[in-house]
Design a protein that fits this description.
Length: about 170
């Protein structure tokens, strides 16, 4: 897994790339608890590329703040492709950013199920492309304790934004 120094370097590279591209990023975080936004804002000059992050740990916050539909939460659960897609689209709409990343998962040590064991994390990215918004999602299964799962989620989310800038 990554350490805090490698997260810092990854976030620094992301801020530099966003700045060079003239783009801004927004975050909608659940299991990562704001760590993605923290990693970005730890970098001097990040205010030019990051102005918006939402920690929506509770389903009610996902609904009332970001606009996730209750039907998606009821039918698929908060740890799902459908919900991170709605989270990413919602924070992109609210923020006016060029790209958004959303994260929702089961960091543990409890809360896992047979279908969604501890370490299951869904990611969603929303990218403005002209008048369209391009959406994609991914599911990863991380191992380790709560801290390692959350740390791996931050790295994966930051790397995903870097890939989508290009």
């Amino acid at each position: 897994m990554a350490d805090h120094e490698s997260i810092h370097k990854l976030a620094e590279a992301l801020v530099n790339e966003l700045s060079a591209a003239g783009k801004a990023v927004a975050t909608a975080e659940s299991c990562s608890g704001g760590w993605i936004g923290k990693a970005i804002t730890d970098i001097p000059g990040s205010s030019k590329v990051f102005g918006y992050g939402i920690v929506s740990y509770a389903n009610g916050a996902k609904e009332s703040i970001i606009g996730v539909q209750n039907e998606a939460l009821e039918k698929h659960g908060s740890v799902s492709s459908q919900v991170v897609e709605e989270m990413a689209k919602g924070v992109l709409r609210l923020s006016g950013a060029d790209i958004a990343v959303a994260v929702s998962g089961v960091a543990g040590p409890s809360g896992g199920t047979k279908e969604k064991p501890v370490g299951t994390v869904w990611f969603g990215w929303a990218v403005r492309g002209g008048s369209n918004v391009l959406i994609d999602t991914a599911c990863e299964y991380f191992t380790g304790d709560r801290e390692l799962i959350r740390e791996a989620s931050v790295v994966y989310a930051l790397q995903g934004v870097r890939e989508r800038i290009k």
